[in-house]
């Protein structure tokens, strides 16, 4: 006969510790789930990022997805649905079921610039989407090669009036392209635009001496600044950035009337119930105000910048009108 096999005391203790830990985990999940607004989706959530992995909006998406999943107990993932200058990913959310389980994370330019620059877009931002929240912003900055021999905006303006200079941006019609056209209009600096597929490519050519100036969001050039590979001249935002406290704003450098910030928002398909949208906003706001989340984003050069659905909708309308006027005045087109 076989006798009853009993576990040693140490095994029993380990088993008990494991049971307590499991119960604590279940308890934490249950508490988190109970703390969620009732209308928050209880099914898996997909955050659509219409660009490749690694950029600021992708970083935001992955941090949010991690917290959505931890709080709801349901899966939350990021899907990088690239192509068509972001339009393929945008259309995927436009056509999704309006229940809050498929959300769009998108940079400002796709919402406020492309509708004017690309009049035949297969979607209408105001008609096809519900703004959920502004998530974060990234300061924009002008940097130059040390070989150019300028260390201030006024020196750049003076040099541009006597020498043939060029500047790089992430592409024709990008927010940074339009910001530089505003800069040229206000200063009379004649600097030739050279479009690239993204800021990393523009920075590479700046370091190689092919261009003289790069207009970029801060995260894309921060390491080059810290390594003293480029000279930062000015922020295009209204305030200095805490990561670069010695770099002035354009206004401080004598160029008034330019306040351009790269920002990233969350949208849902049109028809998403108001209580679902508001529940997602409330949870997102709670996540973004966590000190640990703010620290992670700050390390990437991103500032938490929260706006409600109504505030984001107003921002989109205001900036669309601003950039439409610049595009038309400067006759900017995509070839």
Task: Using brief descriptors, characterize the structure shown.
D-Maltodextrin-Binding Protein, domain 2; 45% helix; alpha/beta; single chain; 10-stranded mixed β-sheet; 10 strands; globular; disordered N terminus; 335 residues; 13 helices
Helical proportion? 40-55%
Judging by the overall fold, what is the CATH architecture of the largest domain?
A: 3-Layer(aba) Sandwich
- In DSSP terms (H or I, runs of 4 or more residues), the helix count works out at 13
Low-confidence stretches: 1-34
Number of strands: 10
The radius of gyration computed from the alpha-carbon positions, rounded to a whole number of angstroms, is 24 Å
Mean pLDDT: 87
Structural summary, described in words:
With 335 residues, the protein is α/β, with parallel strands linked by helices. It folds into two domains: 45-138 and 261-329, D-Maltodextrin-Binding Protein, domain 2 (3-Layer(aba) Sandwich); 139-235, Periplasmic binding protein-like II (D-Maltodextrin-Binding Protein, domain 2, 3-Layer(aba) Sandwich), CATH 3.40.190. Helices cover 45% and strands 20% of the residues. The protein is built from 13 helices and ten strands. Strands 1, 2, 3, 4, 5, 6, 7, 8, 9 and 10 form a ten-stranded mixed β-sheet that branches. Strand 1, helix 2 and strand 2 (76-80) form a beta-alpha-beta unit. The longest helix is centred in the first third of the chain and has 27 residues, at 9-35.
